[in-house]
Description:
alpha+beta, 8-stranded antiparallel sheet, 5-stranded mixed sheet, 15 strands, globular
Amino acid sequence: MRVFYFIIISFFIQTSCKEQKDNIKIKNTPQVSQMLESYNKQKHRLAFNGCEMTYNEKPFSLGMSLKDLNNVFGEYETTDLGAIIFKDIGIVFAGNDKNVKPSSTINIIYLYMNTEVSKGYEESLRHKLNHINNYFLIEGMPLDKNMFVMDFIANSEFKLNDFAISNQGYEIEYNCNNKKMGYFLDADGTWLRKGSGHLTFKDKPNPENKNPFEMIYITEISE
Length: 223
């Protein structure tokens, strides 16, 4: 059976990651193979491999115009705050323009997974409720909204020390043509703590974080 799983993963690397072979972080396990098989059957397939990103094997990137994004993703809607929503796909983009037009360029990507908004703001913040409901790939590793942080790390070749860890979540940086790209994976429970009450303090990163990711955003990092 191990050979069978290896064949599935090898096939995945050759087909779904044609231009993204350098940073594959998947483990050769039955569970990962099953997730990859589900991913490959999806109508919408998003893959993020550091500097390279694809939707259904078509490349896209930060800095693209909305017109070019439209050619990759199809129809979209916008909000008063300037968010660009591709509803069925579960991805949101934003740039510097609140009055979005085809020439507007995007500089941030959002994947909302388990975010909530306060009652009364469902319309104005509807982009935060545009949750991605399918698997997507981070360096070849499948991730979905129901997966715990610890399961994502345990099933991949990622290690906790690959990430910068804050109270808000996890960050990993990539050098992309002399620019830095940051992936920010927001989640609760990032730290183990000691003490109680006002004397609580951070001890060390939580190796068994049983919280799902709230959202992921990707943007260029200024020096």
